Amino acid sequence: MNGALNNSEQIKKIVLIGISTGGPSTLRQLFQILPEKLDLCIVVVIHINESSAEKLCCLLDECCKMNVIFATNKMPLENNKIFICSGTEYNYEVSSDLKIITSPHFEKQIYKPSVNHLFETAVKNIRNQKLMMILLTGMGNDGAKGLAAGYDSGHLTVIQDEKSSVIYGMPKAAKLLGKYHYEGTIEEIAELIKKFSRNLI
Question: Which pLDDT score, from 0 to 100, does residue 1 have?
Fold first, then answer.
């Protein structure tokens, strides 16, 4: 007798995004381009407080075709949904059974929540899904090390270019490490996500 597919069997591809300064407008620009169904899920870590993130989710959910949700602890991932992870209390990761898991910040942590933590734990936890890691506009260097870890593990890695970035800090830090496959504008990154969903890259 065949049972229903569990979460990890249904989801084959996951897109992880790290973003900071300029995040809300950039995410709106990116997600408005994406179609309703992509047969993948998207997890975003953005450096804004929880109340701002909840408002951002409402705004994005109204103007984008995909459903946008504020991520909470033990929330299972679902295809064709965008999960926004933010706030000043927790870091976020995706577990091996594809749930959002929160954990306390590290001592003396500068960037909250940590994009590096999302990327690095995904490399360790996720074994049966394809990963695409994207680092977008933002101040500082959060996400650069995690993106490099993804690159070294054979996952697809993408950075936003300088011209289209509001603040070219996080993508620049990743570019200096040289561990990325593609660099482009928001429009070009949207097309890469579509190609990734269709196994064209």
Answer: 41
Residues 100-152: pLDDT tens digits?
999 998 888 899 999 999 999 999 999 999 999 999 999 999 999 999 999 99
Using alpha carbons, list the distances in angstroms from residue 155 to 1, 122, 168, 191, 200.
Answer: 35, 10, 23, 17, 14
The total number of structural domains that make up the chain: 1
Please identify every residue annotated as catalytic.
Answer: 20, 47, 142
pLDDT for the residue 97: 95
**Cα dist from 37 to 28, 88, 99, 143, whole Å:** 17, 31, 20, 27
Block residue for tokens 């482009």 = 184
Domain membership flag for residue 54: yes
User: Is the residue at 2 inside a domain?
Assistant: no
What residue numbers bound the domain in which 27 lies? 15-197
Classify residue 99: in a domain, yes or no: yes
Residues of the chain with pLDDT under 50: 1, 3-4
What's 188's domain CATH number? 3.40.50.180
10 belongs to a structural domain:
no
